[in-house]
Amino acid sequence: MAAAAAAAVGGQPSPQSEPPQPELGRDKAATAAHLKEALSRPDNRAGAEELQALLERVLSAERPLARAEGGGEEAAAATGGGSGGASGGGPGAAEEEALEWCKCLLAGGGGYEEFCAAVRAYDPAALCGLVWTANFVAYRCRTCGISPCMSLCAECFHQGDHTGHDFNMFRSQAGGACDCGDSNVMRESGFCKRHQIKSSSNIPCVPKDLLMMSEFVLPRFIFCLIQYLREGYNEPAVDVPSEKDLHKVLQLLGPQISFLEDLTKMGGAMRSVLTQVLTNQQNYKDLSSGLGENACAKKSHEKYLIALKGSGLAFPEDKLTCGMQDQAAGTSSLAVSGFAGATGTSGQVDSSDEEDQDGSQGVGKRKRVKLSSSVKDQSIMDVLKHKSFLEELLFWTIKYEFPQKMVTFLLNMLPDQDYKIAFTKTFVQHYAFIMKTLKKSHESDTMSNRIVHISVQLFSNEELARQVTEECQLLDIMVTVLLYMMESCLIKSELQDEENSLHVVVNCGEALLKNNTYWPLVSDFINILSHQSVAKKFLEDHGLLVTWMNFVSFFQGMNLNKRELNEHVEFESQTYYAAFAAELEACAQPMWGLLSHCKIRETQEYTRNVVRYCLEALQDWFDAINFVDEPAPNQVTFHLPLHRYYAMFLSKAVKCQELDLDSILPDQEMLMKLMIHPLQIQASLSEIHSNMWVRNGLQIKGQAMTYVQSHFCNSMIDPDIYLLQVCASRLDPDYFISSVFERFKVVDLLTMASQHQNTILDSEHERSMLEGALTFLVILLSLRLHLGMTDDEILRAEMVAQLCMNDRTHSSLLDLIPENPNPKSGIIPGSYSFESVLSAVADFKAPVFEPGGSMQQGMYTPKAEVWDREFDPVMVILRTVYRRDVQSAMDRYTAFLKQSGKFPGNPWPPYKKRTPLHPSYKGLMRLLHCKTLHIVLFTLLYKILMDHQNLSEHVLCMVLYLIELGLENSPEEEPDEEEPVGGQERCHDSWFPGSNLVSNMRHFINYVRVRVPETAPEVKREPPASTSSDSFASTQNSGTAQVFSLVAERRKKFQEIINRNSGEANQVVRPKTSNKWSAPGSTPQLTTAILEIKESILSLLIKLHHKLSGKQNSYYPPWLDDLEILIQPEIPKYCHGDGMTAVERILLKAALQSRLNKRIIEEICKKVTPPVPPKKTSSAEKKTLDKEERRQKARERQQKLLAEFASRQKSFMETAMDVDSPETDIAMEIVTPEQQVSEAVYDCVICGQSGPSSEERPTGLVVLLQASSVLGQCRNSTEPKKLPTTEEEQIYPWDTCAAVHDVRLSLLQRFFKDSSCLQAVSIGWEGGVYVQTCGHTLHIDCHKSYMESLRNDQVLQGFSVEKGEFTCPLCRQFANSVLPCYPGNNVENSLWQCHSNKSMQELIKEVEELQEQLGIFPVSISSETNLSKEMESVMKDIKSTTQRKYTDYSKTPGSPDNDFLFMYSVARTNLELELIHRGGNLCSGGASTAGKRSCLNQLFHVLAMHMRLYSIDSAYNPWKKLTQLMQDINSQLCNEEQPEVPVLYRDVSSLLLIQILTMPQPLHKEHFTCIVKVLFTLLYTQALAALSVKCSEEERLAWKDLGTLKKNTCNAEKSWEVLLSLVINELSKGKLYLEGETEELGMVNPIAWSPDNIERYLQQFCLPFLRITSLLQHHLFGGDLPSCQEEEEFTVLASCLGLLPSFSQTAHPFTSAACLDWSVPAFDIIPQWCFEVTSFSERHAEQVKVLLIQESKWDLPHLLQLPENYNTIFQYYHRKTCSVCTKVPKDPAVCLVCGTFVCLKGLCCKQQSYCECVLHSQNCGAGTGIFLLINASVIIIIRGHRFCLWGSVYLDAHGEEDRDLRRGKPLYICKERYKVLEQQWVSHTFDHINKRWGPHYNGL
Questions:
Q1: HSE-up of 392 (CA within 13 Å, CB side)?
Q2: Is 1496 helix (H, G, I), strand (E, B) or coil?
Q3: Cα(482)–Cα(544) distance, integer angstroms
Q4: Prior bond to 403 cis, omega within 30?
Q5: Are 1261 and 1335 in contact (CB under 8 A)?
């Protein structure tokens, strides 16, 4: 069928087959049905032709691209604009039409949707294959993955079972595809439910006619698409990038490609049809040859040919004109020298690259690079030839730089196996072309991602990779393409011999390296090398290895640094990033990939191959750079990949493959060369840390740090040190040691003379370079990473080193432990061994949370036994990036020893026994037993003992370490143990008799001849008499003194080796003079002096012990007391202690190893040691020393001062930041009552003067005003609100405190007079102003000048001075205003002491009179003083703190009632908030919890002063209503259109504040108590009224009767039964209790109202008022609040307020009514109050009850409750659409206060330049917003115009955050952290506790 169709489609349409016109007129469906029927006949020629003609017209006749005149360019422009579409139709009308036709034809006349469904039914998809693009959230499970690139879509992941697996969620960088169901990439156990079972057997066969039409239509459709692509493409002009045109074409083709994509989603059946169409070569040939008479087709074919031109690797010019001869040329081997071919351009790859070429760079001088002759596939060099649609489609995909839609289409097809193979081969065929396009691309980043998106799907599959390697020469192609790519950016190497160097290296400044353009190709290469079968082919292919080493040598010696000696470098180049990245990615990672396959004996051959070609490449390199034996001075490159390849393969060979090391090592000469450059790097590291390279800028330090950094160290420093260890173990030890000291430039320092000349090193660098050299030797000799440690031991050592530097989080440990960079290596982070080692060496410290402290994360800290036995300073030094970390580790070690009592003093780095060496490397220990090293050690010990310059404790420490290492590793036998003294003649001119350290230690040296400057003190002395020979058996002829020159030694050694001198090196007589090579004339004359020494190493050690201890004869051999020590020495593996302990240990070891040594030590100790000679210091030295000492002392003093200052500041900060502990009184708080009339004294923190606050020069408190809606968030349910995580859960705000108060106010405003309504309630539940202070005071004029100075200060501050913000000058707490302190005596204190005996009535009268005085101010206020001005300005601040909408509630805007309401509400807000900070009740008592942070007293004065500017009309004064009986109630009510609010509806707390604030200050305590008593009666009546409404009808009647009975008892007014019946009686006069309405009011739970219940209800109702009042009293009059149990809170507060006469504490049970004190008889006043309500109920019966019942019980404010697992939130919100803009936000966030979902930074939801989060923070929190960022798991706080990142409340299993979900591990709620967040929100301390604030410019 398919063949027939193909033939039919292919044939040229014959003239008679023109379809009759009406065909098109008929509707599409009918035509399609007709055609389908025609094609189903056995003879379908006619039908096929008819269809063919139809498609011809539909798909090409009206192609807009072709219609536009003037060829392709204008066409692209015309249609690209979208307006110039086909013949006047809309944009792309023809395409729409064509697509409609295609859909109809495919469906064969049926509906397209039904057709899709039908095809889907035949989908055998066992694979998921879902393709995603960048930023998609996917999962990776390492437990289930076979390939490290395995990934799953969220759906498959959650459907599978991955409990307990090592998985993580990640955001895709480049895009990817789901591998569920593919057993090549993942284990079947991890498949999800959908993809586990499907096997093709149970899927029915596809009916033939279903897809028949598709087979006919699709080839035409795809061809049509290809023609579009051909026409749209124009070769870019040289200068104009063509992206724009390409994008236009692609936009136009969007619908077509989407159509294809939809087809792929129909499942397997349709995919196989597509595969057939895409890969069929016949179809392609027939349709695309372009030979038809159609001009349009011809034109597009020409364009195609032009586009193909540059697609080969070779040059177009190289081609012979005739295509046939290409084949012949292809057979010859590919030795294209330098790729230059005929044209001679310098290695340029492609003619169109000419513009990249920098012609000046040594054109003909490039090293000729011979390409591997084994590239069997000539095709990669030639122009591409396409044989199928798939190939051309991929070609255009590449040309158009991988458009996302095309990529997705090509990938969606991959589940089809045939397609996968065909596509992979096509991809490989185009590989070189991909590289060329990538290099030219302007958006190489995007393109790289798309390339990898495709290649990772193809090459992760081992079977496929192997097949392509065998059939398409994949490896050859990859290596060649990489080589070509790098060829384009080579420059001449300047290493060593600049003029004659033939070596070329990559130029790290080129875009190719700087932008990592090469990474897609390299990552593919690494990916295929991870497959064993492919890697084997690579390792067996010698040609490939040669080419690869060639490639690696391009990086050898790149980015050369030259030390700047004079000027500081002008421009710091940052190329080193590129260089390190290139070496790691292009050289090291492939190396690790290859190494992972060289693990067993059978792979020895591979290692031999690599080593062989590596050495050849190295030899070529040494030749190319003209290297002889000395490296060029003052230059260093950190990049030696060839050395490192060689080193790593050596290491593997010995460790895993049991190869004999010597069989793969080169000769001595080559070893000598090999060691030079790695050694040069070690010396340069030391130079860089000694600041010798400072003129090169910071970047050189950056390189030194990167070289040892955890991601690079095991590909850089570790192989280098290992290579040096190998060289050291095979070369002559004397030669090696002298090379080291020469490289480190400290040879001249190693002299016995006290002064010396160093020609190549400044004296200030000498000490640190000497330390560097010794430290290097210690590392070299004690590191065992490649010399015998197992992988687990290495992991443990690495982990211990990192933990010793600092406690670490789990993730930073994973990051810091250098894992093998190749993912298949076995040490996968998070793997079993990692976790088990971690639990063995470290303890987990759970995160701690102090409010106000920093957010801690879960940390791991070393166990005690690790410090005790495993702390290894050598490993720490090797792994520290920053030098300070070494100090940090030592400090922690010291602290541990002190704490555990193991060592009190300052310990030295401990000596640690090493793992045994692998036998192959035994030679390394010869370094410790060579005379050169012994001479150095002896010299240094002597110099330290004599206190020469430039030596430090560190030097001594390293010297002793080396001696101890030598004793630990001494050769077994010591033949000359008891040799007679006579035998000493044979080595008379040498320092030491042999090379064994044990025997050399006891060897006495008498005289040394030294060269010293003539100025040195040694010169003056007479040479000693030649007879003075030591009494002790001296092995020295007294006359001959030694001189020692390392350089001469080394030169000689090198010559010997070069001349292959077979004689023993030792027999050559050493020269007596030093042939120092210094510049002539540059130094003062040296003369020879002879020093008398008479010491041996042992005697020096013993003297050192005395010197260290500061006592004579401090050393006493321990074995003299206890012989056991020698027989069973208990030398621990690990020793703590300082220098003295080290010396003792060494002497004991020396004594143990030889009896002679033991005897000599005893001898030396017996002699009373003479005192250490005094320091001979010249006066100049003395001066410098004094200077040093003075400096040291000054430094210590400074430290001390700083420490003291810090501790003061710290204790200060603690008091300032404290959230929860009552503080001692500060000066601002009221002075104790004894000093009765003294004024309050304040300290100004700016000018430091103390004094009272006065009218003229007022003092103020530093305060922070902030708008707050915390109160409004209280809810009346104790059930916590949860954050919604499903569609069903929603949060409705109507049960919040703010909403309830709002409703109440608007209800009152509907029925009552506005001005009276505004005094019946308080506002400020939302947007109320909260005032807090840090407690510091300052003069207001001082503050103004302080603000001025802040304004002029240009430093970037975290606050805005324009808005009046500043930080307290003393405690740096954030503030934005100053609250003036009211001057005056502390009268309050004295006034309330004396109890007045005035009656209630008198007091009431007085209160009334005081209120009448309103208009008459105290003189001071009416006259404008500074104080009153300040009070006004602070009032303005308070008003402007909150938004307009929170202050304007009146119906007439700007009415004074508004201000009045706002002012007393500020007081209310602050009282209520303080109550909440105390936990919602006053049970805890004590001073104000916010002790000195409360400024209510001052605030009250400011508010009172402003309140008294408003007079309340005496007729409306509520005081009168409360304390007098009105005569004509009726008349008053009737004559008003809107009555006043009935007193029973008024909020009593508000009344209290109005009363108090409108009275002249200071208030008398008795007046305060009087007001409280009166208001309490009203409150009690309200409680009874509310209760009466809640009762049922029967209960009401019962209570009414009961009360009437008791009415005449004596205490009737104080009995609630009586009062209740009275209230019920009065209220029932109105329409209040109409039956039938009670149901809806609180009748849900008909409680039986027992007397107890009623009493409890009444107390609960009154408590909020009592609490507020008590707080107010506390602030106004001082005095502590009593603490109590919760059940007695009411009585305690009542008696504290003076409501409860103290004598009433009698036996009979307490009732709340006992507190009542009626000013007017209850039986008169209650009816009057009730009457107001009943008369209202006549008109509006339905609202009466609602207003009577006030909600009194509010729960404390809480944030929303969050789910346990973060994934719950993430999965719901990260795909959720925003309700405003209906898009999925890029950065979704959710408000933790109310649960609103918002777009962070979303421009879509911006309103008047405010982004949504900022807007929401103003609406929901009056400027404070707490948002959880869904994609980052962190919480962001918005406070006004600033914001800060708060941190995360979700932590992983190791107690650490995962910001931005980078690690993607499961996260769990941390309840403590969430509590801290809530605490900061409620206490309004975000500004104080969080430090990093920045402005958000409304953009969040």
A1: 28
A2: helix
A3: 12
A4: no
A5: yes
Alpha-carbon dihedral angle through residues 537, 543, 545, 551, given to the nearest 10 degrees: -130
The label of the residue with tokens 């879960």 reads: 858
CA atoms of 1738 and 1568, how far apart (whole Å) = 37
- Give per-residue burial for 962-986: e unless 16+ CB within 10 Å, then b: bbbbbbbbbeeebeeeeeeeeebee
Residue type, 1435: M
Q: What is the percentage of the chain residues whose pLDDT exceeds 70?
A: 77
**Residue recorded with tokens 């504290």:** 1696
Q: What CA–CA distance (Å, rounded) separates 1000 from 1365?
A: 75
pLDDT beyond 70 at 1620 = yes
Tokens for 1773? 């919100």
| Helix, coil or strand: residue 307 | helix
Cβ neighbourhood burial of 1604 (10 Å; 0-12, 13-18, 19+): middle
Q: What is the 3-state secondary structure (H, E, C) of 200-217?
A: HHHCCCCCCCCCHHHHHH
The count of other CB atoms within 10 Å of the CB of residue 1569 is 19
Give yes or no for a contact between 90 and 97, defined as CB atoms under 8 angstroms apart. no
Give the Å distances, CA to CA, from 826 to 817, 1298, 1365, 1475: 14, 60, 57, 60
What number of other Cβ atoms are within 10 A of residue 352's Cβ?
A: 15
**What angle, 0 to 180 degrees and rounded to 10, lies between the N-to-C axes of helices 462-472 and 417-429?**
50
CA distance 548 to 1880: 61
| Residue from 1558, 1667, 1680, 1670 nearest 1229 by CA | 1680
Q: Which of 929, 931, 934, 950 is nearest to 748 (CA)?
A: 950
CA pair distance 319, 312, nearest whole angstrom? 11
Q: Tokens 């190497």, residue? A: 493
Cβ atoms 1438, 1585 nearer than 8 A: no
Place of tokens 């033949």: 975
3-class secondary structure for 1417-1472?
A: CCHHHHCCCHHHHHHHHHHHHHHHHCCHHHCCCCCCCCCHHHHHHHHHHHHHHHHH
Q: How many residues does the chain have?
A: 1900
User: Distance of CA 976 to CAs 930, 1000, 1031, Å?
Assistant: 17, 11, 21
Could you tell me the end-to-end alpha-carbon distance of the chain, in angstroms, rounded to an integer?
Answer: 62
Please, which pLDDT band fits residue 1050 given cuts at 50, 70 and 90?
low
pLDDT attached to residue 885? 92
Strand-pair partners of 1546? none
CB 260 within 8 A of CB 409: yes
- Whose tokens are 């001057």? That residue is 1383
The alpha-carbon radius of gyration of the chain (Å, integer) is 46
Output the pTM of the full model: 0.81
User: How far is Cα 1759 from Cα 1281, in angstroms, rounded to an integer?
Assistant: 8
Of the candidate ranges 73-82, 83-92, 755-764, the one whose mean pLDDT is the lowest: 73-82
d(CA 219, CA 942): 92
CA angle 920, 921, 925 (to 5 degrees): 145
Tokens of 1278: 């104790």
Q: At what angle do helices 243-264 and 404-412 cross, to 10 degrees?
A: 30
Q: So what's the pLDDT on residue 696?
A: 92
Which stretch of DSSP H or E encloses residue 282?
A: helix 281-288
932 Cβ contact list (under 8 Å, min separation 6): 733, 734, 737, 738, 1046, 1049
Query: Is residue 145 classed as helix, strand or coil in its secondary structure?
Result: strand
Q: Which residue has the higher pLDDT, 22 or 1555?
A: 1555
Say if strands 1005-1013 and 131-132 run parallel, antiparallel, or are unpaired.
unpaired
Structure tokens at 40: 């189903």
* Token duo for residue 575: 């190329």
Per-residue confidence band for 10, with pLDDT thresholds at 50, 70 and 90 = very low
How far from the centroid of its chain's Cα atoms is residue 1337's Cα?
Answer: 41
Q: State how far the Cα of 1081 lies from the Cα of 47, in Å rounded to an integer.
A: 105
Q: How far apart are CA 759 and CA 1080, in angstroms?
A: 10
